[in-house]
Give the backbone structure.
Amino acid sequence: AQTVTQSQPEMSVQEAETVTLSCTYDTSESDYYLFWYKQPPSRQMILVIRQEAYKQQNATENRFSVNFQKAAKSFSLKISDSQLGDAAMYFCAYRSASSNYQLIWGAGTKLIIKP
Amino acid sequence: SQTIHQWPATLVQPVGSPLSLECTVEGTSNPNLYWYRQAAGRGLQLLFYSVGIGQISSEVPQNLSASRPQDRQFILSSKKLLLSDSGFYLCAWEQGGNQPQHFGDGTRLSIL
């Protein structure tokens, strides 16, 4: 069974600096999708970035980028120029491209932005 | 553009009372629909998903049920709530199995 692990329960970063959130996953499949979601204190779950496993190029969305290492089964999220509005819980999620409709979620990392 | 509406935002119910949470999606057709529960400070637990009208898959056995009476409507129900049903409930939709899921604003359910 697939699993997703976020080993950092909490991270803090100074405003305007860069922070990297780690995510590792376990799967025997070769085709899948990976996601990062953000959940601010308002509790709304917001998609940050999506990566397709068959694409070697790392996905980027403005200040957010990923470091996707397929062989290592690692999918870290880098946030550049951190802003106060980035403070939130960040969840990593995995989905198989073939088996079923489930997203497998990590436990989350709480990101604190220091002004 | 597509939008998802989930209500109520907050609900306080006594133990043993019934429950009905509703979720509707606009701007798309035949979406996949999901109900999740999130305990405080934790990740998401998938409760139910639906790939079409009347088609419900349950991932966790419990006293909750789900129904999809219309294409873009997904309802989470219970006949008798338990204290353990307290939590934050999120509805989500997606267009196809390889697309990201998009979430409603959630319902905070407290059982007294």
User: Anything to note?
Assistant: The longest strand of chain B covers residues 44-52. The radius of gyration of chain B is 13 Å. Chain B touches chain A at residues 32, 34, 41-44, 46, 49, 51, 57, 59, 88, 90, 92, 97-98, 100-106, 108 (CB under 8 Å). Chain B has a mean pLDDT of 92.
